[in-house]
Amino acid sequence: MPQKNSSYSLSVEADLAFDREHIWHPYTSMHEPLPVYPVVSAKGVELHLADGRTLIDGMSSWWSAIHGYNHPELNQAATDQIGQMSHVMFGGITHKPAVNLARKLLALTPQNLQHVFFCDSGSVSIEVAIKMAIQYWVAKDRPLKYRLLTVCGGYHGDTFAAMSVCDPEGGMRELFKKVFPAHLFAARPKTRFDEPWVTDDLNEMELLLEAHADELAAVILEPIVQGAGGMWFYHSAYLKGLKQLCEQYDVLLILDEIATGFGRTGRMFAFEHAGITPDILCLGKALTGGYMSLAATLTTSELAGCISSDKKTAGIFMHGPTFMANPLACAIGCASLDLLQSSPWESWVKNIAIRVKQALEPLVRVSGVADVRVLGAIGVVEMQRPVDVAAAQKYFVDNGVWIRPFAKLIYIMPPYVISEDDLGRLTDVMKAFVESC
Ligand SMILES: *Cc1c(COP(=O)(O)O)cnc(C)c1O
Q: Whose CA is nearest to atom 3 of ligand 1?
């Protein structure tokens, strides 16, 4: 920990002032930036602030730090790899970290997925997935199949193709919509994860597939959990039925597991709740246990084979980022998967679900609360009105926890390794805040 002497706090003040003047934070204005909290280190499930305070982490740094921070085994993997090489280009070169990570991913995912494209962020893995789907239909001499069908309330990233399939109601998509191709949207799946299934729920999807099959490349959506588009958990029968419809109408299925992958919903991948397999799968976020930016797009031999034998494109798949398969990130990814698979993560996630349910479900009766939902290691309190993020954040920090609400949602998705005491602290503070609203 840094010394709390006066020159240190002066430099923190100077850094904060510089930050306020010059550095953009996610989704913020440069004119009225929300306060930011300087973090100097993190360990286990704790974030250490520059002023000496310690916060219990309820966010896993946006789904990613599933093992907690500063983990000795991940640190070791990073140190070992950096002593070999941090990065080399992937054009014309290969290396153990990439090969090992691809091996592990293929072993972990359904048999039909056989090919891995590594890239540097979740959004890019979505771009890659969309390109794969479009190139597949071009290869099959059906170039008119280039549109996408998705559901409202989705979030797939901030780059252009990813943004074009984000929730149409969100401000972001509206702002740039002139640039997008006209994709198709069905209503958000209505039946809750734990409610009896209502078959009507898929009707609109089916009508759209029927009407547009000839121009649709793929359906893209987040399986079971819609994350940044509203933290909504829908029924597995929706996904199961959708998979059947995609087969029936000859449309590919892209699943975005960037948030849900690697155990968060109680299964290794959320699509396992529905017993289905996608044609294209996007992974990211927790892939390196939150250490490095890395993502992957996996696909089938059918897709890879078709794209690769297309004479029109000389069989080339048209993508190749500079930091593709970054060895440092891949090495940490391997260590993170080993750590996950050698841990009792399923019972950890189950216990988190039980405790978070017990603590949060009674809040549905508190005035101002619209809904409470819990699935796996995700607990959500939806308020009736938008939450004042700056005020909420200050309350949480003053009470020793790191929880960052957005819109009407106050939610936690802690590292799986969190202790019962720390988890209890998170839910206690959440409860106290909601009751004070
Ligand atoms: C975070 C996220 C993305 C985008 O990933 P980035 O690494 O932020 O580009 C895409 N899809 C889902 C479901 C996500 O949660």
A: 157
